[in-house]
Design brief:
With 423 residues, the chain is of the alpha/beta class. Bound molecules: Double cubane cluster (BJ8). Double cubane cluster binds next to helix 7, helix 9 and helix 18.
């Protein structure tokens, strides 16, 4: 890929040497974790291709779209209403990063005790490693956790940042605040793109993003089968790619993959014979953060569900499509996003219910709660999650880690012991 896109990366002001090293490491990591799996689905070839072109073809598409006058909007949180972006004929891409590269640079302007996800996106920008950030006309931050909220203040010195205020509770006043914020965001997107969002445009965008959520719901339902027909690693990758690939192409390819999966389920074929079914819950795992799922799936277990923003939190709820006026559709959007059960909310009891329901539906033997080091909201909530699960008779293991590889052996020992215990 390097030769073909070098001129484009140069125009985007990437550090070409550092970027080439990053791609090399990523390719090796992907080979070890993904391509070595036995009996993968034909449909995963699409994901392999997307990954092999991660900073190539998709970036080229974004550049071509920009040349035709379309805008690219980057986001870090599933709270940003994507439908507004697509309704204005702009393109949304997820910017969360899951690699350690750039951490050193990030720690020059952020405290060391900041979560890896934040350090990663700041580090990628400072080290000129991410063509997605460099392709953005607007970068949308949000006031979720304190770390992100304050990091965006610093980040705005380096990128065109717009910040959405996210409510912290779910009372009537919070809904009103959120509606104001959605309207303010709509205005900002209209100003950027020069496109007025009409009811028709918004309805089409709602239908598009709902279709993407539905295909991911279908995929998740297929994982309830026994034996489970697809590895957790593969599904995590699908979820990660959903944040930046073209939605129409993604929907079509994942529909095809689901058809293949359905046939596999009918034939009673699965992956990982005899592996213990577990579920992941907690912080999002941005690409290429595959460390923990890989450890789990090489320790005699298989991941059959992810209760996270790169998982069911992003796909569980659809936007009601029946509205005909702009006002009705905007209200439907506001209501759907208010259902997000991020640990940044207080109280957040619905998340506990969702975790227990999901664990029961997927018939898992245990839950592994994943927290990024220094992430207070999820670390705090893990105690409540454990309590709720224990009441339901489901064991939980709490893992706290970051993007480094230093603790892999230690994590493996803990995960293996947990899997043996619940087997
Ligand atoms: S809706 S989970 S995407 S905020 S891991 S940066 S919380 S210190 S990512 Fe998130 Fe939106 Fe919530 Fe989802 Fe802060 Fe924690 Fe870091 Fe986090």
């Amino acid at each position: 890929m390097t030769g073909r896109y070098e001129a484009m990366w140069e125009r985007l002001n990437l550090d070409l040497d550092a970027h080439a090293s990053l791609l090399e490491v990523l390719g090796k990591f992907y080979g070890d974790i993904y391509l070595n799996q036995q009996g993968r689905l034909r449909g995963m070839e699409y994901l392999d291709f997307v990954l092999s072109e991660i900073h190539g073809l998709r970036i080229q598409e974004l550049q071509e779209a920009r040349a035709q006058g379309r805008k690219v909007i980057g986001t870090f949180c599933v709270f940003v209403p994507e439908e507004i972006v697509w309704a204005a004929d702009a393109i949304q891409v997820g910017l969360c990063a899951g690699a350690e590269a750039g951490t050193e640079a990030a720690e020059k302007i952020l405290p060391r005790n900041t979560c890896a996800l934040i350090k990663s996106f700041v580090g990628f920008k400072l080290s000129r490693l991410c063509p997605f950030i460099e392709s953005c006309d607007m970068v949308v931050g949000e006031t979720t956790c304190d770390g992100k909220k304050k990091a965006y203040e610093i980040f705005s010195d380096y990128a065109p940042v717009y910040v959405m205020e996210i409510p912290q509770m779910k009372c009537a006043a919070d809904r009103s605040l959120w509606k104001e914020e959605v309207l303010r965001f709509k205005q900002a997107v209209e100003n950027l793109t020069g496109v007025t969002i009409t009811a028709e445009r918004l309805r089409k965008a709602i239908e598009l993003i709902n279709r993407r959520r539905r295909v991911l719901q279908r995929l998740n339902q297929l994982r309830a089968a026994k034996p489970v027909p697809i590895s957790g690693r593969d599904v995590l990758l699908i979820n990660q790619v959903s944040f930046y690939d073209d939605p129409e192409r993604f929907i079509q390819k994942i529909e095809e993959l689901c058809n293949e999966l359905e046939e596999k389920v009918q034939r009673g074929e699965g992956v990982a014979d005899g592996a213990v079914r577990v579920m992941l819950s907690g912080c999002p795992m941005a690409i290429p953060n595959w460390k923990l799922p890989y450890i789990i799936e090489s320790s005699g277990a298989v991941v059959v569900g992810e209760e996270s923003c790169i998982g069911t939190r992003n796909t569980r709820d659809l936007v009601e499509e029946s509205g005909t006026t702009l006002e009705e559709l905007l209200n439907a959007l506001v209501d759907r996003y208010m259902k997000i059960d991020c640990a940044c909310f207080t109280p957040n009891t619905e998340r506990l219910d969702h975790i227990v329901d999901m664990a029961r539906q997927l018939d898992v033997k245990g839950v592994i709660h994943y927290g990024l080091s220094f992430c207070q909201p999820y670390a705090m909530e893990s105690f409540k999650v454990e309590k709720a699960l224990s009441k339901a008779g489901i064991p939980m293991l709490a893992i706290e880690t970051d993007y480094s590889m230093e603790d892999v052996e230690q994590l493996k020992t803990r995960v293996e012991a947990f899997v043996e215990m619940i087997r």
